[in-house]
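Figure 3 (text version): structure tokens given as input.
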């Protein structure tokens, strides 16, 4: 197993490409502001140790898809929660196993400082993660859902997750951006309807 140790008291930006299974990564960068990581194989995110990143406010995580319930990337919510002051998150991945995806996020931690979230995927069940973040990110203001394939979505019959009781709805979300569905108004309407189950008032809806 390869072990990489990155330690710096002055580093502000860190980008890691092509992290593979068997690479154990430990990062201690107390003044890091931006973190970007590209994971290329199915692996346990517990192999990424982030004991000291209190200043991080912006992150982009790109990961491969789920293959089946017993072979998928684990620990994603825990990894994100290890950034206690994270304000902006871009999460890009594919989902080939909806059941494993929901299992992974069923015990989602609270992201106390997250204000901006962008979910990017060509597998539209990934957008069902939005309710988990809506109910566990009390300061969330902006949500972007992006079709990374730029192809037509067609029908989407996935049932939205999370509580539907109006008492558990968020009061307000400032902005929702829906990207890559310009010619797919029916699908965009489905997305908005699903979000409305979890948010009472959406200030602005942008179709880009």
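Below: residues designed for each position.
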């Amino acid at each position: 197993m390869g072990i990489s140790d990155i330690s710096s008291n002055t580093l502000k930006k860190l980008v890691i490409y092509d992290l593979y299974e068997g690479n154990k990564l430990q990062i201690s960068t107390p003044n890091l502001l931006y973190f970007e990581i590209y994971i290329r194989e199915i692996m346990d995110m517990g192999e990424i140790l982030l004991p000291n990143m209190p200043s991080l406010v912006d992150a982009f995580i790109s990961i491969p898809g789920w293959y089946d319930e017993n072979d998928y990337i684990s620990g994603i919510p825990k990894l994100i929660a290890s950034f206690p002051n994270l304000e902006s998150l871009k999460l890009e991945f594919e989902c080939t196993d909806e059941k494993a995806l929901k299992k992974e996020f069923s015990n989602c931690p609270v992201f106390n400082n997250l204000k901006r979230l962008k979910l990017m995927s060509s597998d539209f069940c990934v957008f069902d993660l939005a309710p988990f973040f809506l109910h566990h990110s009390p300061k969330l203001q902006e949500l972007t859902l992006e079709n990374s394939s730029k192809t037509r979505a067609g029908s989407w019959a996935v049932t939205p997750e999370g509580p539907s009781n109006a008492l558990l709805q968020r009061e307000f979300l400032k902005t929702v951006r829906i990207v890559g569905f310009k010619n797919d108004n029916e699908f965009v309407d489905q997305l908005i309807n699903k979000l409305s189950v979890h948010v009472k008032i959406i200030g602005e809806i942008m179709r880009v």
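Residues 154-167 have pLDDT under 50 and may be disordered.
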